[in-house]
Amino acid sequence: MKKGSGLFYKNLFLTNRLFTALGGCVVLFLLAFFFPWLGIIPELAFYCLVVLMMMDLFMLYRVKKGIFAKRHAPERLSNNDDNELGIYIENWYPFNITAGIIDEIPIQFQKRDLWFDTELKPQQRKLINYILRPTKRGEYEFGLVRVFVKSPLKLISRRYNFGKGETLPVYPSFLQMRKYELMAISDHLSELGIKKMRRLGHSLEFEQVKNYVQGDDFRTINWKATARRGSLMVNSYTDEKSQHVYCVIDKSRAMKMPFEGLSLLDYAINASLVLSNIALLKEDKAGLITVAEKIGAVVPADRKPTQTNKILEILYKEKTRYLETNMELLYSTVRNVIKQRSLVVFFTNYESISSLQRQLPYLKRIAKFHLLLVVFFENTELKKLSEKPAADVEGIYIKTIAEKFAYDKKLIVKELAKNNIQSILSTPQNLTVNTINRYLEIKAKQRI
To answer: Where is the DUF58 domain (predicted)?
Structure first.
């Protein structure tokens, strides 16, 4: 740890108060030429300022280690979430101090005004919290924590440097995953926009025989158990378990488009992570496939406790590629890896009906063997343009083009439905909620 090392003057800074006082002395010397009665007042003022400066120097430097500071940061940051970091500071001076703190945050945030002002009494400790919201996965390098300390005189500032550069990885949104996980465990998913789906019919998986209570379906009465016990008994069923849920993520150039600082790929990754975790909570098996012009990662479906972390570590490294998706290779991989009927959630993006037509033959083949759900994105910027009134001929042209692209998105949904392929057309910010809603709906209807 580096604490104010080096020659003392390298960490010595003059304050605005000192420059103001020096300016006042200069003015007094100038006035003395015109008003001789001022006499030695300018000189006395100057010497008093020098004495005060020396006192300030003595107060700040007589203690070798006047303060202590340290950055408090998590082991990893969550992408597109508000991550809380903190700076712990402690005053070891025997007098009150004023401190200005700079935390050298990574260049990815492009912030040069992260400055904290605080005041500390002797032996007082403080934790100053602040929020960082990364929008890209990868490694983020932090620098030093620099603290500029001023005594009550505030003529001179002494700089302390703490810590050394540290690197924090930014992972897919595990904070969002935990939030949905807690809501699912406490059965409060509706607070996040998750709909409660009415179960149609009965699941095929028997759970137990229990006493009849008002509201139970009379069609589930177990007459043999009722005869033995002498009271009404009913069969209880639960959602089918161990169903396979695969998230297939398109990494091609179609997913490079940005939205609110995040690429479509990152939105798909965050939604896949949450969906996989919810599927594991529902005691299904979660798997993952990433694809572009070649197959990326393949994680066979499983429900081991380590499956979520395994998927998280793989998604952390995924990046957008610049070629189109090789759908033939994806189809062969799905046939070789997924051996039983599964829910395959394909995260991709289509901007025109022609882009769908190129992939449709392969989607139809996958849909023959699995329940295929295609998830793609609504272009919110084009939607805003299409809803904006046109003021001139150029505005009419732009509005017409925007409406055409928006209409193409609706045609894509209809074309997929015509081929018995389910789809979700979602805005990026609502992707996770819409995907989980559809998954729960599919389970409730026993479509897998």
So the answer is: 208-350
